[in-house]
Amino acid sequence: MKNDKDLGLKQEMVDGKLIVGEYQMEVPNTLFGKIKVLLSTTWGKFIFYYLKIRYNHLILAFKPLAVYLEKQVFPKLRDRRVKWLTIKPGINSQSEVLLTGYYEDQEIDFPGTERFHRLLETRDIRALEFDTYLESNQLMETMLMLFWAIPVITDSKLKTAGFWTWKRKAIAGGMLTKSGFHRFCADMRFNLESRIFQVDYTYCELYMARLVKSYARSFSRFSDHRAYFALAPIAAIVSFLIFSLPLLLIVRGYSVWEIYWIPAVVLPPVGAWATMHVLGAMQYGMEHSDQLLSEYIRQERVLARFPEVNPNPVYKISKKGEVIYINPAGNKLLGNASTGFDKVESVLPMDYVELSKKSLKEQEPLDFEFAFKDRVFRYQVSPFQEDQTVLFVANDITYLRKIENELRNINANLESLVQERTQELQLTQEATITSLASLAEVRDPETGEHIERTRLYVRALANHLKNHPRFRESLDERTIRLLYNSAPLHDIGKVGIPDAILLKPGRHSDDEFEFMKKHASLGAVALTGAIKKLGFDSFLNIALEIAEGHHERWNGNGYPRGLKGDDIPISARLMALADVYDALISKRVYKPAFSHDKAREMIIQDRGEHFDPDIVDAFLEIEDEFKAIAAQFPDQG
Prior knowledge:
Blueprint: H1 4-7, H2 31-54, H3 56-79, E1 84-91, E2 97-103, E3 106-110, H4 114-122, E4 127-131, H5 136-149, H6 168-175, E5 181-183, E6 186-191, E7 196-201, H7 207-211, H8 213-217, H9 226-251, H10 262-309, E8 314-318, E9 323-326, H11 328-334, H12 340-343, H13 352-362, E10 366-372, E11 375-384, E12 389-396, H14 398-443, H15 450-465, H16 477-486, H17 499-502, H18 510-516, H19 519-534, H20 539-549, H21 570-585, H22 596-605, H23 613-621, H24 623-632
Parallel strand pairs: 4-7
Antiparallel strand pairs: 1-2, 1-4, 2-3, 5-6, 6-7, 8-9, 8-12, 10-11, 11-12
Helix pairs in contact: 3-5, 5-6, 9-10, 15-16, 15-21, 15-24, 16-20, 19-20, 20-21, 21-22
């Protein structure tokens, strides 16, 4: 049979970590190192026999399940391409204590496992995860390792361990690493948090097999490799009885103690034991090669049938543009299997030969769409460098494109409806603001064009400050639009001021002025009620900030709440400057209209006292725009 190199299978199998020679580099190359490993392995044999005796109750409880898993469960799972089986302690519907296996969405109950169930619970092991390529003896050996290591596993600080070590803490530390502790051609990992023990099968060359690799290759195939390992102690005993014991009886007749006969006594049983292990290791390697070959052939068959069962048209094209193969779905599309090769140009783009050459040259797959009659296909082009051919696989996306067109039309209609409704909402919002603002204007005719001018001032300041580091995150386009729409409501609270005070033709007394100051709080109360009824954020939230806070001062001496500095909302700070500027340049019953320069001077004097310094600086930079707004909307009469 072919070996691994003949198959080209050097690294891995489709499922599982079947890696040839994975751990052979861990064996030292020096003679001293090899002797050390051999002595450690021999010492390990004594320890392992001790573990079998100490944990005999574990073997008796677990062996039936391990054999059942290997013979009955694992083969079926491997056929279904299932790599892992999880086993957890549990109770079935009949209230029986047992173990249950889980894979994908299936469950398997294992009756008669109550004893082993108790052993797991005693050591707080909540789940076992087994690779389905494991054998029953590997299952039992790895469980012995777990029971040997688990008493010290929480105290272990060693994070790496060679596979030949038998130190308890070293084994425990190895199990806590991501790669796990390797022994018996398996990786053992234990998760302290979840208390899950995982065993992953990995093929490994045994040490003694490496020493006689060429010798082992020359043997014919035998039965299961475990038979040789089982025969090893028997062969050693038989060899001792046949060769060593007679020699011992002979040498006892010598009166002088000689040491030269010791090798003749020791070597036969040791040689018999080692030979059995060598043969077992050799058979193990052969079985693994057969497994790799079987998997390789299986995958070849699956891949070979793929084009035949593929519901999508598949065309294999040579570098020169010759049609080498058409699958049944492709012939069905062409309408006639016998003449399909002559018609293939009709279902491929005119430049398919150039596409084939390009894909082969760049060694990159291509992707494009092609219309054929009333159908649309999406082609995936894959190059095969080995035989200089290209595979064209077509996927019918006609229905998909139809759905996309329908969705596009639906989205266009929805966008039109949304835009129409948005315009209606904006118009409704503006009408609402205008109506509310007109209440204050009707009650206070002296304001004139004050509302229009102040909203334009606020927008001009906001647009100028939107790139300022302090205001960049707060003044986006939507916020500026809401500021502009909400500014007219800054004096909405004046509807609650009695006419005797609001319309008084002259300066207010101190008491009247104190009452007049309540218009900020009255406006906030009215807008707060409206916001609560809406139940969501709207332009009224900014209107509330403006109405309540446009008389607050930067130094904290304003009203109604005495806010200071950045505690004052940005919207209110903008309105504060706009409102004062417009009041200064407008005629009132208690004062004449000031010039722009006079108003400018007074605002500069209040920089850092009444107004935010940065907002004053912005005003000075766009004062021409303020003058233009005032000129465009003068007071009437």
